[in-house]
Specification:
It contains ten helices and seven strands. Strands 1-2-3-4-5-6-7 form a seven-stranded mixed β-sheet. The longest helix is centred in the middle third of the chain and has 26 residues. The protein is globular, with a radius of gyration of 18 Å. The structure holds adenosine monophosphate (AMP), zinc ion and fe (iii) ion (2 copies).
């Protein structure tokens, strides 16, 4: 069993990178991918700990894309190491753009009378990059909202008053840069695109044409019938049906490494299939 989708404190998870392989080993995973948003600099610490535990650490990241769709598009990338390269260099630019966005986000929160400063956001994120989940956590702690989900539904989600756009790559850029850096790309949590099944099928066909390798089908928060439909969709388009928990520690407390909400089981063969797609 494996887990191809997890986050650490370097993005919007709550565990240090080296804790991810520990949790994976405890769950019985042979391999685990660390896929922080826009960042690869947690991979070294995670790989070192994974080596001690006899778990394979799959280097990865998750990238937000703009495809002009109703929902949000995230692309998972694996087999790209920290350092220099086409994707790596682009990620540095995305991080700078995120920092600029966060300044605007703090200004927007202040204008709305919400008690969250940039300094508090940075403290919440620690060594990680500030993201909206950190703002949501502060709003919960201060009693402004009752839950992280309410923070997004009322304030932070797309189209809500505190939503501030951040720079996103076109899907073709994310997929192309991943391949140019020796990696493979998959569409993360495809139901987040906000499309009905036929429309999703059409988008997946276009992405496959662009060089997408996988479709995240066995996802921590998806029901068995949703997973089944996505596995079938992956097969129709010649894509690897990937899977992962999207573990974020306390920021998504219902999800555990390896097992998701308790029923996740991603086969080792998925990783072998992805490796076979790498350049
Ligand atoms: P950011 O990268 O700062 O724009 O934050 C994006 C993260 O916020 C995503 O990876 C999700 O974890 C979370 N998020 C975005 N939209 C929602 C939503 N509508 N409900 C709950 N969480 C969300
Ligand atoms: Zn996240
Ligand atoms: Fe995501
Ligand atoms: Fe994720």
């Amino acid at each position: 069993m494996i887990d191809l989708h997890t986050h650490s404190v370097l993005s919007d998870g709550s565990d240090p990178p080296e804790r991810i392989p520990e949790l994976a080993a405890a769950a019985g995973c042979r391999a685990v991918a660390l896929t922080d948003h826009d960042r690869l600099d947690g991979l070294a610490a995670a790989a070192a700990r994974a080596g001690e535990l006899g778990v394979e650490l799959v280097p990865g990241c998750e990238i937000s894309c703009d495809a002009g769709l109703p929902g949000s598009m995230h692309v998972l990338v694996w087999f790209v190491a920290d350092g220099e390269g086409p994707l790596q260099d682009e990620l540095a630019g995305l991080l700078r753009a995120r920092e600029e966005r966060n300044v605007l986000l703090a200004e927007r929160l202040a204008a709305l009378g919400l008690p969250v400063t940039l300094a508090e956001m940075e403290e919440e994120a620690g060594e990680g990059s500030v993201g909206r989940p950190h703002v949501a956590a502060i709003l919960v702690r201060k009693g402004v909202v009752g839950s992280m989900q309410e923070a997004f539904d009322v304030w932070l989600g797309q189209g809500r008053p505190a939503y501030v756009e951040k720079r996103r790559l076109a899907p073709a850029e994310a997929i192309g840069l991943a391949r140019a850096s020796g990696g493979v790309a998959a569409l993360a949590h495809p139901l987040s695109l906000g499309l009905d099944p036929p429309a999703l099928d059409g988008v997946v066909a276009e992405l496959a044409e662009l060089g997408l390798a996988g479709l995240e089908s066995v996802y921590g928060r998806y029901a068995p019938d949703e997973r089944g439909a996505l596995v079938a969709m992956a097969e129709r388009h010649g894509l690897v049906a990937t899977g992962g928990s999207d573990y974020h520690g306390t920021y998504k407390p219902d999800l555990a490494v390896g097992v998701g909400q308790g029923d996740l089981m991603v086969d080792d063969a998925v990783l072998d299939a992805l490796r076979g797609r790498a350049a």
